[in-house]
UniProtKB/TrEMBL annotation:
Gene Ontology terms for molecular function: phosphoribosylformylglycinamidine cyclo-ligase activity
Upper classification of the organism: Bacteria, Bacillati, Actinomycetota, Actinomycetes, Kineosporiales
EC number: 6.3.3.1
Alphabetized PANTHER family for the sequence: TRIFUNCTIONAL PURINE BIOSYNTHETIC PROTEIN ADENOSINE-3, TRIFUNCTIONAL PURINE BIOSYNTHETIC PROTEIN ADENOSINE-3-RELATED
Catalytic reaction list: 2-formamido-N(1)-(5-O-phospho-beta-D-ribosyl)acetamidine + ATP = 5-amino-1-(5-phospho-beta-D-ribosyl)imidazole + ADP + phosphate + H(+)
Record protein name field: Phosphoribosylformylglycinamidine cyclo-ligase
Major localization listed first in the record, in broad terms: cytoplasm
Protein species of origin: Kineococcus halophytocola
């Protein structure tokens, strides 16, 4: 009788090694001369002498995952797009303070290592890192049999960037009279999937169902990757008019915009300046989801907002649109009054966001 082995316990070391081999080429494409050392070390190394010309560099960091969107990828057996969601969620969280992303690490936990599946996930992460201009310097793939199902996995990542201290964006620079420039989302991005999955499950919709409003299947729509705003958002800084930015993630537009406002102002968003995409109206109608719940959960078509000086608003809009992302003025910042109530930011004592009017075509 043979003894218990790691393989019999559910961990396949050979498959893990094979997965690493398949990842190497994708990861290498993200790395420039600042990345030091070979692939597979205990730690990723980055040569920060590239920061020597900064007067007072501040490092910015963020970590996140993509939530239950991974369940859709697993159900459809499509794994090469979820990496873009991961990169978008972490990179755009540091871009909003004006930071240029430098390097990123990722973590994949799975019930069973399928080398081709792991390589597809990492290839998606690497492609998105290239788009964002960030080096993928390392990662970890962990096999957790008994904790996760054989075909289940979850992904997480962390990114580090840098910003000059006197160029830091944030609430301190926002003033009454500033305007709000919206940047269109590509769809649901990576938030609210617990709501969306419940709606479609209750309706009995399968992921391979063709949805006329989408012009493709439900599954294809739900897997549209999170838009990566890193380069377009940073390009707007050259206008000299950007004071703050908000990445619209969990909590919706109002809560996330309030996070980048000082306590003495209110951001008024005019819903009539845009029409949310079909995926939002389908979720609303299919699940009879109340509007206020939609607005607290989904981005409703706006993935990033820049708070800018009024005289530079058009320049910011044009800079973003030159990259192929629709952008528009969606509101303004005014002095806060008692009638505006308390801050609706996510756990902070910041400003207030109010939404007025109705979306076109809604």
């Amino acid at each position: 009788m043979s003894g218990t082995t790691y393989a019999s316990a559910g961990v396949d070391v050979v498959a893990g090694d094979r997965a690493v081999e398949l990842m190497k080429a994708s990861v290498a494409r993200t790395q420039g001369p600042e990345v030091v050392g070979g692939f597979g070390g205990f730690a990723g190394l980055y040569d920060v002498s590239v920061l020597k010309d900064y007067r007072r560099p501040l490092l910015a960091t963020s970590t996140d995952g993509v939530g239950t969107k991974v369940a859709v990828a697993q159900a459809l057996d499509v794994h090469d797009t979820i990496g873009a969601d991961l990169v978008g969620m972490v990179v755009d969280d540091i871009v909003v303070c004006g930071a240029t992303p430098l390097f990123m690490t990722d973590y994949i936990a799975c019930g069973r290592v399928v080398p081709e599946r792991m390589a597809a996930i990492v290839a998606g992460i690497a492609r998105a890192c290239e788009e964002a201009g960030v080096a993928l310097v390392g990662g970890e793939t962990a096999e957790h049999p008994g904790l996760l199902g054989a075909d289940e996995y979850d992904v997480a990542g962390a990114v580090t960037g840098v910003v000059e201290s006197d160029e830091l964006l944030g609430a301190e620079k926002v003033r009454a009279g500033d305007v709000l420039v919206a940047m269109a989302s590509s769809g649901l991005h990576s938030n609210g999937y617990s709501l969306v999955r419940r709606v479609v499950a209750d309706a009995g919709w399968a992921y391979d169902r063709h949805v006329e409003e989408f012009g493709r299947t439900l599954g294809e729509e739900l897997l549209v990757p999170t838009r990566i705003y890193a380069k377009p958002a940073l390009a707007t800084l050259a206008t000299g008019g950007v004071h703050a930015m908000s990445h619209v993630t969990g909590g919706g537009l109002a809560a996330n915009l309030a996070r980048c406002l000082p306590a003495d102002v209110t951001a008024e968003v005019d819903r009539s300046t845009w029409t949310p995409g079909a995926v939002f109206s389908v979720v609303r109608d299919l699940g009879q989801v109340p509007t206020d719940d939609l607005e607290r959960t989904l981005n409703l078509g706006v993935g990033m907002v820049a708070v800018v000086a009024a005289e530079q608003a058009q320049a910011v809009v044009e800079t973003v649109e030159q990259t192929g992302i629709p952008a528009w003025v969606c509101g303004e910042v005014r002095r806060r009054t008692e009638a505006d109530g308390s801050s609706n930011g996510k756990g902070i004592a910041g400003g207030v966001t109010t939404l007025r009017g109705s979306h076109q075509g809604w």
